[in-house]
């Protein structure tokens, strides 16, 4: 289910191609509870994986009401309909953004949360708290909260990848669009941070490994787990310039860049201690930076202008 605010049905067509399955897909806005009810009536749902939400950090700081309504309001609407239909299992796409500025690194799940440096992170933090409170109040409810670090890459087939509308705000879609010459050069937001090369450090996790983390969480959820939190990251940090160089190596294309001032809401370094997910979920990372960049280049070079506009 997707309201198609930042996606198209073409990506779902490609999921069907890749899997050889016809995944039932619905264009629904989660704020439309009657449409949600229709879906729950038609399909026996055992668990909801909740990925929906706006996620542009800068935009979230300028449009608080839109983000609170879309990310939190729609989640409450979904949770209410789930309760009406006796669906008590949820896997939630949370974010490392709930940690705010690190008080220690690598960050484990015990790291303080709520000191978010941007409104996007606050919405993820509030939704985590809502799910935790529901699991406490209603003991048949189970939730697994997955705190994503920085998902990047594309499916190995080259058929699925990140294709944000407009100019990408995220680093790697921007880098790959520079490599295919859709964009002129990368702007690096600051090179005077307390990091090895002065540019910001993040924990870039391969999106296919991230997807496998959800499959592992679904198996784990069957154990009546209550509400549990897991970091999905690699435990390694790479700088902006590291990533640009890794992509140049993988693609054989130059990624020119210029240094600019810092971006509001950014933090110097952020990377995970992901040992709990490895231990409890049996989730093992498979792919490294080079492979992540190779698959991202395969996607972008096969789809230089992104997905086909929806026919
Ligand atoms: C990465 C680094 C930028 C663009 C993201 C998402 C958020 C959440 C957490 C999942 C930063 C630098 C970027 C550019 C640059 N995701 N950069 N030039 O800010 O870590 O947060 O991950 O829940 O939705 O925003 O990721 O890709 O925006 O930036 O220099 O044109 O690249 O300063 O250091 P970020 P990002």
UniProtKB/TrEMBL annotation:
Signal peptide start and end residues: none
Cofactor or coenzyme needed: NAD(+)
Catalytic activity entry: UDP-N-acetyl-alpha-D-glucosamine = UDP-N-acetyl-alpha-D-galactosamine; UDP-alpha-D-glucose = UDP-alpha-D-galactose
InterPro entries in the cross-refs: NAD(P)-bd_dom (IPR016040), NAD(P)-bd_dom_sf (IPR036291), UDP_G4E (IPR005886)
Ranges of residues in domain NAD(P)-binding: 18-295
Documented EC number(s): 5.1.3.2
Pathway given in the UniProt record: Carbohydrate metabolism; galactose metabolism
Record keywords, A-Z: Carbohydrate metabolism, Galactose metabolism, Isomerase, NAD
One Pfam entry name: GDP_Man_Dehyd
Enzyme class: isomerase
Keyword NAD carried by entry: yes
Gene3D superfamilies: NAD(P)-binding Rossmann-like Domain (3.40.50.720), UDP-galactose 4-epimerase, domain 1 (3.90.25.10)
A molecular function (GO) term: UDP-N-acetylglucosamine 4-epimerase activity
GO biological process, one term: galactose catabolic process via UDP-galactose, Leloir pathway
CC annotations in GO: cytosol
NCBIfam families per UniProt: galE
Subunit structure: Homodimer.
Family under the similarity heading: Belongs to the NAD(P)-dependent epimerase/dehydratase family.
Function of the molecule: Catalyzes two distinct but analogous reactions: the reversible epimerization of UDP-glucose to UDP-galactose and the reversible epimerization of UDP-N-acetylglucosamine to UDP-N-acetylgalactosamine. The reaction with UDP-Gal plays a critical role in the Leloir pathway of galactose catabolism in which galactose is converted to the glycolytic intermediate glucose 6-phosphate. It contributes to the catabolism of dietary galactose and enables the endogenous biosynthesis of both UDP-Gal and UDP-GalNAc when exogenous sources are limited.
Protein name, as recorded: UDP-glucose 4-epimerase
Taxonomic path: Eukaryota, Metazoa, Spiralia, Lophotrochozoa, Mollusca
